Amino acid sequence: MTTLSETLLRKHYANNQHPYQVYEKHVDTLLSPGAALLDAGCGRTVPVLRKYLGRAGRLIGVDLVTFTGVPPGIDTFNADLSDMPLPDASLDLIMSRSVFEHLTDPEAVYREFSRVLRPGGAVVFLTANMWDYGTLAARLIPNRFHARIVSRVEGRAEEDTFPTAYLTNTRADVECLADSAGLAVESFEYLSQYPNYLMFNGALFFLGMCYEKLISRFELLRFLRGWILVTLRKPGLGS
Question: Pick from 112, 60, 117: which is nearest to 81 by CA?
């Protein structure tokens, strides 16, 4: 992060909610006491699930990574999201953050989510928008270079950077996959954030900021925003 980038970030984004915050607040509105909540692709230390300790009937994390330091009260399973060791109709809510861009077989994952959800249950996921400039650039760069680039640009450990596929990152893809799995798209929202990929260069950050302000101001350009926040619903018994 350069001094100019940091100054611009503080001046222009100090009061802006990060998409992660918007996502968690949306999960809060759908979570009821006693509910069974799954974090799909929860991460090694289940950072988001920790926030829901004492607020749900059961907390479950599923990921392919090796779990470390998981607190009591959270059940974890090392499994693929397309084949989870959970009973049919056993969950009320599934949440997933920054995972769907990595799915190589999203159709199977959507079907599995539909299987484990109770009637009336919901899926909330936050993922990269296909038409964001960062996503478009990532698609042009081979996956083998992603970890090294993200490590330099964001400071994230290379072991925590995974290959991307972007197979369910447009509205059309989401609607098609949801319909085939028997799920309904309840909401689909485009979200923006500061140009985090450009923090390493002040001039580029300024240009990225101008672009972000433009697409945030005009609804006609909302499809270019960096994130999509989606809610899917499994029809209830009375539907």
Answer: 112
Contact 141, 197 (CB under 8 A): no
Give burial (CB, 10 Å; 0-12/13-18/19+) of 94: buried
- Three-class SS state of 14: coil
Q: Which domains does the chain have, with CATH numbers?
A: 18-197+222-233 (3.40.50.150)
Q: How confident is the model at residue 155 (pLDDT cuts 50, 70, 90)?
A: low
pTM: 0.89
Q: Are 113 and 233 in contact (CB under 8 A)?
A: no
β-partners of residue 185 are: 232
Residue 53, token pair as written in the block: 């300790």
Distance (Å) of CA 85 to CA 60, 76, 232: 11, 10, 21
pLDDT tens for 63-101 read 999 999 999 999 999 999 999 999 999 999 999 999 999
Tokens matching residue 163: 């290959």
Residue where the block lists tokens 């240009």: 207
